[in-house]
Amino acid sequence: MNVLIQQTGLQESASARHVELPMGEARFVKRDVGKLDAQLEAADLGQILVTTPEQTAYDLLTRPTLGTTPQEAHAAVENLRPQVGPARFRALVAKKRRKAAVHEFGQTLGREPR
């Protein structure tokens, strides 16, 4: 799940594109938030914008090298598979640029993973 933090008051710098956390690493990328499939959720510090499983799967499939390795990105997508709604994923992909990996994953939704 991607978590987008808005209006934190943090200054952006070239060296502050990722933050180490106890549970892993958070990477910050510039996005047009209005184009994301996301919803507001309550958190300890207020409301945060969280991308849907479908958006997260799409992001991992289209940018598998953003994290540590493409293999980990694909493993994360497979772990998300049960949470991804086939119709919602296909509708999301239809609004965006299609890539082969995204299309292939969309075709396999509703089937057993390989």
Structural class: alpha+beta
Number of strands: 5
Gyration radius, in Å = 15 Å
Quaternary structure of the protein:
single chain
User: Helix amount, in percent?
Assistant: 25-40%
If helices are DSSP runs of H or I spanning 4 or more residues, what is the number of helices?
Answer: 4
The coarse silhouette is: globular
What composes the largest sheet? 3 strands, antiparallel
- How large is the share of residues in beta strands? 15-25%
- Report the order of strands and helices: EEEEEHHHH
Q: pLDDT below 50 for ≥5 consecutive residues: which ranges?
A: 1-15
Averaged pLDDT: 78
Q: How far from one another are the termini?
A: 22 Å
Provide the spatial order of strands within the biggest beta sheet.
1-5-4
Describe the structure.
With 114 residues, the protein is of the alpha+beta class. Helices cover 35% and strands 19% of the residues. The protein has helices at 53-62, 70-80, 86-95, 100-108, and strands spanning 3-4, 18-21, 24-27, 38-43, 46-51. It has a three-stranded antiparallel β-sheet. Strands 2-3 form a two-stranded antiparallel ribbon. The two termini are 22 Å apart.
